[in-house]
Amino acid sequence: MNTVPDLIIFNGTIHTLDPRDSIATAMAVSEGKIVALGDDALDLRGEETEMIDLGGAAIMPGLMDVHNHHMLAGQMDLFELNVAPSLTLDEFLEAVAAWSQKLDADQWVIGGSWGSSLFSELNTPQALERLDEATGGRPALFKDDAKHNRWANSRAMEFAGITDATVDPDGGKIMRDAEGRATGVLLEAAGVIVEQARESLSPTPTSQVAEAAARGMEILHSYGITGFQDAAASLQLMQALKELDDAGNLHAWVVTSMQANDFIFGTHPLGEGIIAQREPTRSAHHRPDFIKIFLDGVPPAGTGAFIEPYLEGVGFPECHCGSTTMPPEELEGWLMSTAVRGISAKIHCTGDASVRLVLDTIQKVREAGLSEPKYHIAHGQFIHPDDLPRFAELEVTADISPSLWFPGVIAEAMKLVLPAERASRMHPNKTLLASGALVAGGSDWPVSVSPNAWEGIYGLITRKDPTGAFPGTLWEEEAVTLADALRIYTINCAKAMGLEELTGSLEVGKSADFIMLSADPFEVALDQLPLITAQQTWFSGQKVYDRLESLSVPVS
Predict the structure, then answer these.
(1) Cα-flanking dihedrals φ and ψ of residue 230, to 5°?
(2) pTM for the whole thing?
(3) Quick one: pLDDT at residue 292?
(4) 163 closest CA partner among 187, 189, 140, 182
């Protein structure tokens, strides 16, 4: 490595977030890596070294996101209707009508998101008739806020062969009114029927997938994110990421989770079919190191798997607890067979029964002497108290997405289907940290409206809605400190993804992934944390985002 730095930044407060929480005033970078921190960095200056005076600004490692769907978010931003899930039904249909008018007569109307609390309003023939009118005869398919469920119009159902008599698919449900008429509301795997019909009629080219992935990363850079895990990658996305990296256009650490099963997206191949392409899609910055298992659904749809029943009288069968997508022996088969190949796993669980099944299965993997694979329980919103210590004991990461649990649309939807005390006890983050568990932060964007980690950090510390739209706190006893919250969104994510030797903190030898902040998080009032922005984002010693440049408008 060249001993003369390419870049030196100085005259600022550099929060390294190393094990000693060191603070430096200067940092030297050579060939994309950190070569010195502190006053010694200035002594390395050469004639060609670029010098950047921070003017007192605060610097920290690039933020990380252990759970998102960046390509889907890019697609929504570039190609789809993209509205907030807080809209009323009337407001949503108005947005659909306005968007549809811009499209060709037979073009699919796709996007979202409609809020989980609208289930009962959508599940009527009258609502379907209004949707048909709003879409002007075009086929249409819209995702809910969880991206697990769909609302299709009559023409889309016709293309997919869904009628009032269609049998529910395994893992899904075609919602009907009291007279047995399909309303277009499709739970879990039922939505895949229409997704697959749409894709067969109008295939998405890999070039569009790459464009969407690149756009997703541009947005992530604007929030200061330099490394992330895509939580449910298709083979097409993995190939697109490889192509981007080979062309020198992948400016982030990207870990992908290959879908072992799927009842949401309708992609293929799955399981061994996609695992077989793991190594051909690997590149310097793309690491297809995980499988993704959907073990249950989401509580508002009654598909999260719980130990105790849901509320009575909310549209579910008596003593309904939900169920897992596969029996214990199938889950064990997946985790054992991938573990011997060194493949890690991210497992979607929203109910405490699915969490327990995962922990029981991982215990068998560990007892078999397979210590290498990393395991993430994704979301884990509800965890039985008896299972909390097991995360640390079994080296299981709690993959948390604060936007899904601090007061908001999704938290309100939980209250409609779960007993009040249970609904209010989501994400015991402080208890998990105290037990020694690794807690890593994700956004689940675009399930969340944005990937803004500062909103998540604020939510972790206050247990409040950072936007102020929803009042109150949610289980405030589980609040964590600022220092813990910052680690949850940096080095903890790096450890969870197997990148801790490369990034996650600012240390000599690591990649120069850092952000210049609008304010020092250790110096501002607590209520100002959600307002912090990335002024600049750097990946591997290269500037990939500059807020001033993005705000500038050329004069014509």
Answers:
(1) -80, 125
(2) 0.90
(3) 98
(4) 182
Residue 166 CA to residue 163 CA, distance in Å, equals 5
Q: Which pair of tokens denotes residue 80?
A: 């789809």
Residue type, 431: T
Q: Which residues contact 495 (CB under 8 A, 6 or more apart)?
A: 397, 438, 440, 504
Residue with tokens 């889309």: 156
Question: For the stretch 78-113, what's the b/e string if a residue is b when 16 or more beta carbons lie within 10 angstroms of its beta carbon?
Answer: eebbbbebbbeeeebbebbbebbeebeeeebbbbbb
Contact predicate 275/288, CB 8 Å? no
* Encoded amino acid at 211, one letter: E
**How many angstroms separate the CA atoms of 478 and 439, rounded?**
13
Burial of 30 (0-12, 13-18, 19+ CB in 10 A): buried
Around Cβ 346, how many Cβ atoms within 10 Å?
29
The SS3 assignment for 389 reads helix
Give buried/exposed letters for 347-357 (b at 16+ CB in 10 A, else e).
bbbbbbbbbbb
Helix 70-79, helix 206-222: angle, nearest 10: 100
| Tens-place pLDDT, residues 444-468 | 999 888 999 999 999 999 999 999 9
Q: Please give the structure tokens belonging to residue 486.
A: 């910052």
Cα 332 to Cα 191, 273, 304, 346, 362, distances in angstroms: 27, 19, 20, 14, 8
Q: Output the pLDDT for position 555.
A: 41
Look up tokens 């400190």; give the residue.
Answer: 481
- Both structure tokens of 63: 């933020």
- Count of CB atoms situated within 10 Å of the CB of 434: 13
Please tell me the predicted confidence (pLDDT) of residue 327: 97
Report the candidate in 2, 1, 4, 18 with the shortest Cα–Cα distance to residue 514: 18
CB 500 within 8 A of CB 64: no
**How far is it, in rounded angstroms, from Cα 185 to Cα 502?**
45
pLDDT at 417: 96
Cα–Cα dist 440/379, whole Å: 10
What distance in Å separates the CA atoms of residue 139 and residue 136, rounded to the nearest whole number? 9
Q: What is the pLDDT of residue 2?
A: 61
- List of the chain residues with pLDDT < 50: 553-556
CA–CA distances in Å: residue 63 to residues 468, 490, 506: 23, 5, 12
How far, in Å, are 26, 148, 212, 447 from residue 204 at the CA level? 47, 20, 11, 21
Q: What is the DSSP string of 489-549?
A: TTHHHHHHHT-TTTSSS--TTSB--EEEESS-TTTS-GGGGGG--EEEEEETTEEEEEHHH
Query: What would the 3-class secondary structure string for 216-237 be?
Result: HHHHHHHCCEEEEEEEEECHHH
* Strand, helix or coil for residue 267: coil
Q: How many CB atoms lie within 10 A of CB 468?
A: 10
Write out the two tokens for 86. 């807080």
- Residue 457's nearest CA partner among 421, 435, 490, 431 is 490
pLDDT value of residue 519: 98
